[in-house]
From TrEMBL:
Signal peptide: none annotated. This is Carbohydrate kinase PfkB domain-containing protein. It comes from the Eukaryota. It comes from Drosophila rhopaloa (Fruit fly). The chain holds residues 1 to 327 of 695 of the full protein.
Amino acid sequence: MLLRRCFLFPFPEVRLVRRALHIVLHPEIRQALQHKKPVVALESTIITHGMPMPENVLTALAVEEQVRLNGATPATIGILDGRIKVGLTPEELNTLAKKPRDQVIKCSRRDLPFVVSRKQSGGTTVAATMLIAHRVGIQVFATGGIGGVHRDGHESLDVSADLTELGRTPVAVVCSGVKSILDIPRTLEYLETQGVCVASFESPGGVFPDFYTRDSGCTVPYNLNSAKEAAELLRSWKELKMESGLLIGVPIPEEFAADKSKIEDAIKKASAQAKAHGVSGKDVTPFLLAAIAKITEGKSLKSNIALIKNNAKVAAKIAASLCEVST
Ligand code: PSU
Ligand code: MN
């Protein structure tokens, strides 16, 4: 038996990194995972559908840099010609970002089998990125904001698959909460139903952010005062073998926060435009993001870039601290 095992697995450490069909791991990330070094997953819908060129590529690269500067290896996840890449190279990032929108699919969980079978390309949403990150053993993931319950979601049932993914995939998502284009109280209710542990980060009283501003008017039960405290939470979550995700809401840095009433105004206008144009389903979020950026003359985009960079920094610190508390 022992001999057989040695024959099949001459390099025992290789078994530490999960292998999965259709997934191509960048060697740097494979190495980091094998040596239990901190790795932070990053999504790519933000690149393909969340921001215009060239801000999308520049932001993706700046976010990766933040992860590195704070002690972790970035793993941007996306799909090129049917191959799921974990750790896109700068060239691959560029290729994905430059593709015309009709040639790149916004890939949530449900889209993955189709895109792979047709050898298409796509940006992965929070849901799909979580699923892939978990397959290869990445535990920490940074993004701007997750999807949620839409403002009319109780009637339309437009509820992002990000929320159900958080209910079933054990990955810790570091973000600035959900955008106020969504129904935040209902989103938090839904996360509770899904059994997702939600905490704010360095936000006394558990004040939960709403992407462009630091205070959504909603609170969550827990606040984490440092990356170390967050890492301790992650360690317990791992020890308990929770099969659900964890959500950490980091408020946008004060100096980049938007004026609440101005952004609310822009959101109302953008939502009215979406209704008038009959935008529905997966096109709603990208449409609203672009419309809000236009209405605010680019200010919302600046806030968006600042907060995602900050989230990448926090996530890297948490991932690094988790490696320390776990050894
Ligand atoms: N929120 C943003 N920017 C984004 C998204 C959300 O501020 O780019 C993207 C994320 O990839 C998220 C997805 O997972 O939109 C949610 O889309 P939907 O609501 O269709 O599930
Ligand atoms: Mn939707």
